[in-house]
Amino acid sequence: MTPDTTPSGRRVDGMGSVFVALYALFALAAGARSAFQLATKFGDAPLAYLLSAAAAVIYAVAAYCFARPSATSYRTGRAALLVELAGVVGVGALSVAQPDDFPDQTVWSNFGEGYGFIPLILPVVGLWWLSRSRTREGFAEGRLT
Amino acid sequence: MPIDNVRAFPHNDCITRRGAAAVGDAEHTVAHAHDGADDYSPGRFHISTSGSGGERTLSARTGHVAPAARSTPRRVVWAALLAPVTLTIVAFLVLVGLWGVASGTRGGAPGRPLLMAAALAELELVVHAVVALAVMAAGHRPDSTGEFLGYVVVTVGMIPFALARARGPHATRFDAVVLGIVCLVTAVAVLRLLSLW
Question: Which residues of B are less than 8 Å from A26 in CB distance?
């Protein structure tokens, strides 16, 4: 816990880099997967593949916002996490209740089971991180957290 | 593409069995390999080092290929080595990954030993990728070539980013965590790559 407030460092405590990395990784994973599926077998499960693509976009938006701290990116990033949480809970519940509608896996199927439930845990932890006053101040000052 | 696999991994039960868990196609490979009475006798399949497809067609049609006079063991050897060597790389990646996450959460910026270990892991991955591309250049085609190449890129492409951050002057303990996470994710990608061979 060594706050880095030097102008060149411009970082609050570095925790934000973990979220940037995780969201970038998920944007890459979900994006590559859905691009591949959409290109090669769109007809098999269009809903599932489009959902994965939507998830990839949300992950990318979150990663971008967390890497470019500002008051606006704070709001956009938080909105992305709320949509992500709603998506993983909603799609997760639907995929359990009506598995026939999801012939192929999405990132959010069964609450992100295929990805070690990280898609479910990540937005919760992310929203906690954003709610810290230290994170909020960092974003407001344009400092990486 | 069962024939393809048979050609690429002649006699190699280990590879096909391992692959069966993840690649549905591999079951065909096993089934094919057991078509004959003594599949594992040398020369049951012609082992081509040139990678030309002529014998393949013949074997597909007649189910029998003229025995190679002196089957070169090169391919057999590397095919048998593939799984253990790859799993060793995976184990090392997991080790470095857990080390990074643990040292970061305990509170230290990434130290030199961790950075060296991650760099060594990256070196292993580069060698691994070069071997993968060389084997493809020699004629082996994985079932899903595009996906395979994508995973090759991912396995070598991620650690340098995390490493660059972790060895910077402003590295924090969270950069050690990121380095660890990236190593763990890379380990998963290498495993996935192994199942695609």
Answer: none
In a domain, A64, yes or no: yes
How many Å lie between the alpha carbon of B192 and the closest alpha carbon of chain A? Answer: 13
Tally of CB atoms within 10 A around B54: 10
Residue of chain B minimizing CA distance to A7: B170
With respect to residue A46, please indicate whether it lies within any of the assigned structural domains: yes
pLDDT (tens digit per residue) in A48-92 = 888 889 999 999 999 999 999 999 999 999 999 999 999 999 999
CA B41 to centroid of chain Cα atoms: 26
Domain boundaries, chain B: 2-62, 74-196
Q: How far is B143 from chain A (nearest CA, A)?
A: 14
Kindly state whether residue A27 falls inside one of the protein's structural domains.
yes
pLDDT tens profile A7-26:
444 677 888 999 999 999 99
- Which DSSP state fits B163? H
Q: Which residues of A touch B158 (CB under 8 A)?
A: 25
ipTM of this predicted complex? 0.82
